[in-house]
Amino acid sequence: MQGTLVKMRTQLDSDNGVQYHLPIGEQSLHLNPLIGKTLTLNFSGQIFCCHCGKKTKKSYAQGHCFPCMQKLASCDMCIMKPETCHYDQGTCREPEWGQKNCYTPHYVYLANTSGLKVGITRHSQIPTRWLDQGATQGLPILKVANRQLSGLVEVELAKLVKDKTQWQAMLKGNADDLDLAAQAEHLLPQIQAHLTDLINDKGADSIEVLNSSTQAIRFPVSEFPKKVKSFNADKQPLISDVLVGIKGQYLIFETGVINIRKYTGYEVTVSVE
Ligand SMILES: [Zn+2]
Questions:
Q1: What is the pTM (predicted TM-score) of this model?
Q2: Given 28, 130, 232, 273, which is the most exposed site by the fewest CB atoms within 10 A?
Q3: How do residues 67-78 score in pLDDT, each as one tens digit?
Q4: Å from CA of 108 to ligand 1 middle
Q5: How close is the Cα of 55 to the center of ligand 1, in Å?
Q6: Closest CA to 250 of 129, 164, 127, 132
Q7: Residue 69 C-alpha to ligand 1 middle, in angstroms?
Q8: Which residues surround ligand 1, an ion (CB under 5 A)?
């Protein structure tokens, strides 16, 4: 199969297992049955912008050409730091996109990746966000009216727990199970004053405390690596190795790992032995 890569599509099966499909151009490769087999990725060196399709020498913001990276609201810094949303100042790069994607309910969640973390995501991205991050557990704790609000709450929670995943640790194994509901009960009272301020400012229905149950997630990994070495497709365009697992957006091979999302827009030929 030959074509350009985009991030792997994930799906939870009835057993809380993650099913992975790798899109390659117009085609798609179901990866779960390939664990234990030799997978070859041969990168051609060509990169095509995932937005406009034009050829680009370098990939910016996970698969964009430079002009698209500068122009698109989805590539703006406020997407990484939602609390810095500047829509109200009239400076959103694409106000219509902002209305559709940011002025929509968001969740603040707790997850277990390399340990406890807090994160935010759009309502439609649960559980996808957790699968992409390699979380073995996820629990939405608050539903808020828009993206900026989710960022303002996350900033407060991030003073108490991590908001980042240590990806090497996440790939070396599964962290011990956590009682996320108990963590939420412990954390939320500590930010209650901030939540009250935000509710007073934005309206009574802008923040809702949820009473959800924890989602358990199982990744298809037959063997975790003891050391995590990253393959760099820019320097080593031919990767051919036995696939031993998949977690988050990483393919785990016997001798290294590769973050597929990082290579969005890269042209590749994939074969299986
Ligand atoms: Zn472009």
A1: 0.95
A2: 273
A3: 999 999 999 999
A4: 31
A5: 8
A6: 132
A7: 7
A8: 49, 51-52, 65, 68
